[in-house]
Amino acid sequence: MKVVWIREEDAQHGVYKPYFCDRLAAGLDEQGMPIAWSHRLTGSSVMARMVPPAFKNGQESLGLFAGAHDNLGIISNVADLARVAAARGHPSVVIRLLAAVDALSRAGALPCPDADRNACDRAVAAARGQLDAATGDAAWSEGAAMTLEQTVAHARTQVGDLPST
Hints:
Layout: H1 7-13, E1 20-28, E2 34-43, H2 46-50, H3 59-67, H4 71-87, H5 91-106, H6 114-128, H7 133-144, H8 148-160
Antiparallel strand pairs: 1-2
Helix pairs in contact: 3-4, 4-5, 4-6, 4-8, 5-6, 5-7, 5-8
């Protein structure tokens, strides 16, 4: 037997579950077996409801990736946090974070999928359009010089404390 509740019943009889997005991409070989796998989750954390101060502005994921030494996850999450900074109207932070993502991925340690690189390029161009050339260039230089640890620290301090403009 399978029981399915409609959304209204689910909200009425259980804990409200906010929107959650799960993106999965896989590559298959000739026999239909997976040879490549990418899985990205975005959504509210159940733990965030229990310990709210520990989770702020999407940084739960960054902390988990950093704790697991998952460099690709860290870079992917930093790129997502740059989008948060863009949405809040902070182009210098966007440029610094994405310059760090670019430099770290080009150094060879962290591959950056072409689709993500294209999205990052568009975000940098939009952010540069909001700044004068000297400020944009300075932000890019600062970000490109960051180590992975500095990038994580910058994302945590800058994005976590950004007000919306």
